[in-house]
Amino acid sequence: MSMIFGVPMAVLYGQLLIGVINGAFYALLSLGLAVIFGLLKIINFAHGAMYMLGAMATVILFDNLGVNYWVALFLAPVLVGIVGVLVEYFLLRRIAGQDHIYSLLLTFGVALIMQGILTNIYGVSGLRYSIPDVFKGGVNLGFMFLPFYRAWVIVAALLLCFVTWFMIEKTKLGAYLRAGTEDSQLMQGFGINVPLLVSLTYGFGVMLAAFAGVLAAPIYSVTPVMGSHILIVVFAVVVIGGLGSIGGAIITGILMGVVEGLTKTFYPPASSAVIFLVMVIVLMIRPNGLFGKEA
Amino acid sequence: MTMMKKLLTSAVASALMVGGAQAEISDNVVKIGYLADMSGTYRDLAGPNGLTALEMAVKDFGGKVDGAKIEIVTADDRNSPDVASSTVRRWVENDKVDMVAGLVASSVTIAATKVLEEADKLGLVNGSAASSITNEYCTPNHIHYAYDTYALSIGTPTAIVKEGGKTWYILTADYAFGHAMEKDVTRVVEANGGEIIGSIRHPFPTPDFSSFILQAQASGADVIALANAGADTTNAITTAAEFGVTQSGQTIAGLVVFLSDVHALGTEVAQGLQLTTGWYWDMNDETRAWSDRFMEETGARPTMVHAGIYSSTLQYLNAIKATGSDDAQTVRKQMMDTPINDMFAKNGRIREDGRMVHDMYLAEVKTPEESTGEWDLYKIISTIPADEAFRPLAESDCKLVTGK
After folding, report:
1. A4-8, B118-122, B240-244, B375-379: which has the minimum mean pLDDT?
2. Is B22 a residue whose pLDDT tops 60?
């Protein structure tokens, strides 16, 4: 078998694919963050908690009401989206226009409260959720065993990423959104309900996180603290991609998944740090991120 | 100035209580600090329910020992050695804490016991796994009670190697505990004629194990051993099931598996998993009776750590009662001189290196068909006698044993 730096090629292909799968999660999560920051200028530290809520909701809906995976895939994000709209309406709106640090602290506080309450009720050992029957099993690709569910994750995540990007960059609704955040008074004058638009945008951003949470429920252990681990990584991804860049967040997400996957192969102990290393390097060379617009 | 005042007050107080045994209990209060991970990865194996176990022991004493009130203070160590050091320092220097209980992440314990040694207070370690805690990191100021990596590595790996699992691949949590576990398991596997063909040190905690499982799978080893704990272990086991590790003929060996982990995984995923434990709630009438009490308070069955916290606290309070003193060395000596016979252990004893030695058990997770309830999870396969389970003193590097 051919080798690269002592690692068999087959193993390497496997790691690349795993990297893309994890990257799909990063892309979906950083996309939501980028939408919220890009359009609302809110640094949403509650994003990890919303991802966690999506996963927890999936399990809780199933355990208590027997709601299946496919319904949850739709219902959980909607419920979390409503939570998001409420957070925006009752809390974030009050500090609109203030320095970024206010939204950061407020959302961080919201995240800690959600996490704390759920930890008290459910503990941290993780809740059980099985992979839906259609996706049980997998296929042997020769270089690795690919569980069907992981393949579905890539498809679903990338599809949603594309739809979101298309909606914001290419449709009239997206144009309203971008214009509304650029000059809200002018848009109000045109008869557009900007505050509603802002609420819905925040709600949509956290829906993306919740959707990632539903995707994660069958394969990661679902715990109230699952969001806090991934949040910081996703922030780094957004910074590397360029704050507010929608397309940048998607591409960087996948890229960082792959970088992390390769690190896990060649030097595992560094795998939790490598994304931050990339972030430092990118910030030194391109302070606005890989895909950021010049300030 | 306040220090002087306190000295004077206690001198006067002691003079007034001449002849009374209370005179030797500092401030006439026995203060216990409960330090544990209350919100992170290790919450469920010790955490808030461990505090309940501690309170149960104090309640059994009626909240008082030898006329002195028993008080409990508590803190979340957040699995950080820095937080642990500063908390324990504050406790012993300002808050007059006499004993620290809980102590979960091994790195936290090593940091905390260092402070306890300087202040000459006592630590009763139950949550931690690293056997180095009573080896190179031993102090005259702590006792390691429920289990350790040495004992865990004797049970499961020996059994698996004997069943034909010769080649091993280890996934190790990259910190003190993981390293100790890896060392201990390597020794046992090699002694039994097995071979370690590879290992990975993964960051702690790791949310996604697919990459590491894939590498372990590609190694072709008979056994993939998990030298990690808590959510890392459950994550790794779930991912291994997803990637068809067991279908392809490889065995998963969880080296540190708690009841709370198996409960989270469920018998569907965890069935057949072999593990070593220091205690199980459903072993006999005594363990069941205590577990029923515990469940009434917490809504969950106790892990071996919870049981160890209760048992060790009882031993501690009994020692104070017997000696009339809460001085660390007096109490520790009394605890060493008294065999432990309670719901946790039979003929348990505390050695000079601080290791409490008692029987350990090899258990197997029941199948969904065998299990009759949510917490009916293990069947005990065999007992590992106390003398075989823990590191013999002859092999010890502990300064209290070698005298160096």
Report:
1. A4-8
2. no
Q: Is residue A154 part of a domain?
A: yes
Residue in chain B nearest A115 by alpha carbon: B39
Predicted local distance difference test score (pLDDT) of residue A220:
87
Q: How confident is the model at residue B5 (pLDDT cuts 50, 70, 90)?
A: low
What is d(CA A25, CA A213) in angstroms, rounded to the nearest whole number? 9
Which residue(s) pair with B34 in the sheet? B74, B101
For A32-58, what is each residue's pLDDT tens digit?
999 998 888 899 999 999 999 999 999
**Are A180 and A198 in contact, with CB atoms under 8 Å apart?**
yes
Give the Cα-Cα-Cα angle B172, B389, B170 (nearest 5 degrees).
15
pLDDT at B404 over 90: no
* CATH classification at residue A144: 1.10.3470
Range of the domain at A218: 3-285
Q: What would the two tokens of residue A82 be?
A: 């409503």
* Ordered structural domains, chain B, with CATH: 24-147+284-358 (3.40.50.2300), 150-277+360-389 (3.40.50.2300)
Structural contact between residues B287 and B281, judged by C-beta atoms closer than 8 angstroms: yes
Task: Report the b/e string of A107-143 with b at 16+ CB within 10 A.
Answer: bbebbeebbeebbeebbbbbbbbebbeebeebeeeeb
Distance CA B315, CA A241 (A): 58
The predicted complex's ipTM stands at 0.85
Question: B203 and B174 in contact (C-beta within 8 Å)?
Answer: yes
pLDDT score, position A127: 86
Residues of A at the B interface, defined by Cβ within 8 angstroms: 8, 10-11, 14-15, 18-19, 21-22, 116, 119, 123-128, 130-131, 137-138, 144-145, 147, 149-150, 219-221, 223, 225-226, 229-230, 261, 264-265, 268-269, 271-273
Instruction: Tell me if A291 is assigned to some domain.
Output: no
